[in-house]
Amino acid sequence: MRICLIAEGSYPYVTGGVSSWIHGLMSSMKEHEFIIYAIGAETKQKGKFKYDLPSNLVEIKEIFLDEYLFEKKKWGKRYNLSSQQKESLISLLSSNHIVNWNDLFDLIRSKEFTSVGEFLTSKDYFDLVEHLGKNEYSQVPFTELFWTISSMLLPLLSTIRHEIPQADIYHAVSTGYAGVIGALAKHLHNKPLLLTEHGIYSREREEEIIKADWVKGYFKDLWINYFYTLSGSIYTAADQVITLFNRNKEIEVELGCPEEKIRIIPNGVEITDYQDLKSIPDDGVIRIGAIVRVVPIKDIKTMIQSFALVEKEIPNVELYIMGPVEEDPTYYNECLRMVDEMGIKHIIFTGMVQIKDYLGRIDFFLLTSISEGQPLAILEGLACAKPFVCTNVGGCKELLMGGPDDRYGQAGFITPVMHYEEIANNILKLCKDQKLREQFGQSGFERVKVNYKRNEFISSYRQLYQLLGGE
């Protein structure tokens, strides 16, 4: 069977998280061939893969959201769109319309659309923005509206025009642009479509836009509605939607995904992979670990603020932030300046490392994200019987506290997002109480050993592929 995995902003350009999940899935199913349809942000990423690709990965199709910058265009063309075609385009940007995605796909991929850039400099596009300005955004300066909508549509329309490789199953690992490509693949090839949603993509984009300086206040709702609209495309088209825990399922239903499509398959780890690790040094130093990419959504700045309070009270403490730093160099440099300006002595940014070289030496772990799915980093830590201090995002609470019928007990502390003082207080509790660390760690280990088995995770997807692909 040939399976096309559609990934946005992750594999094979970024390590950890969803990328590790994709790599592990392919590596565990040697009986199938895989295609990666990789959607990257910038063309400069082309060919810069962070993984040794598995032998059953037979093709990587790369597309980039900035490709439109290199298109030639001519101002003022007239496309003579029909009223139905105009409505399809308006529906993308209107909060009062339901998008007919198949009509939109046919329009954007038609012979008339030789260049996306040319369409967005056409008289028809001008008329479209004028209509929206008069009917929905009358208080917004027209010029700003024109260029804002252009920046929204350019990457989407360019993405829709790409060819989709032939496969037996299409499997998107997020909504957003990846979800649109999945819906397009279903429309073009009429093959089964599967979605696995780790975090809730549209909610994550909403959080980013609310905080973003580059989006003016009166455009924030426009951008937020747009990303919810994109995500709706695959909720409608997918044959099956997989999520990792019950709260995500509830949110998907709220966002319009039919409940009967949704199935929960949690992530898993192999406990035996984490035996015989290096032990904690007997030197009196408390070592805290964070397995995390240094990017804004992981909120490293709150982590730094929390640790600053801890270091003032406990001098023999170290924080190891383990993960790539090159994904957002500006943010990484801001974090370094913050550490320096606050006079923090014992934060170590390790960059990319072999996590198993550190896991056994860490006393407990820290995660301060503002959004998560079901973090593999937590499963890895708990597989080593290490407790956590985590923000209350995604499936973190369920991993540390268990569900309604859980019998294993607490495996760490859950805190509000960005509440650095409460995070620091919980870190201090674990620093000062070795027995509590051991108790929490054992509880987490038992929960993961029983409820989050890697072989069950792989088996569930193997069965699902066989069911959908008919092989």
In whole angstroms, how far apart are the ends?
Answer: 7 Å
Q: Write down the Rg.
A: 24 Å
β-strand percent reads: 5-15%
Apparent shape: globular
| Strand ordering within the main sheet | 3-2-1-4-5-6-7
Q: In percent, how helical is the residue content?
A: 40-55%
Task: Please write the CATH class name of the largest domain.
Answer: Alpha Beta
Number of domains: 3
Note down, in words, how this protein is organized:
The protein folds into three domains: 2-64 and 163-264, Glycogen Phosphorylase B (Rossmann fold, 3-Layer(aba) Sandwich); 70-155, no CATH class; 271-452, Glycogen Phosphorylase B (Rossmann fold). It contains 18 helices and 13 strands. The chain has helices spanning 17-27, 83-93, 101-108, 116-119, 123-135, 142-160, 176-189, 201-211, 217-237, 246-254, 300-313, 329-341, 356-359, 376-383, 396-401, 420-432, 434-451, 454-469, and strands spanning 2-8, 33-40, 57-64, 169-172, 193-197, 240-243, 262-264, 286-291, 317-322, 347-351, 364-367, 388-391, 412-415. The longest helix is centred in the middle third of the chain and has 21 residues, at 217-237. The mean pLDDT is 92.
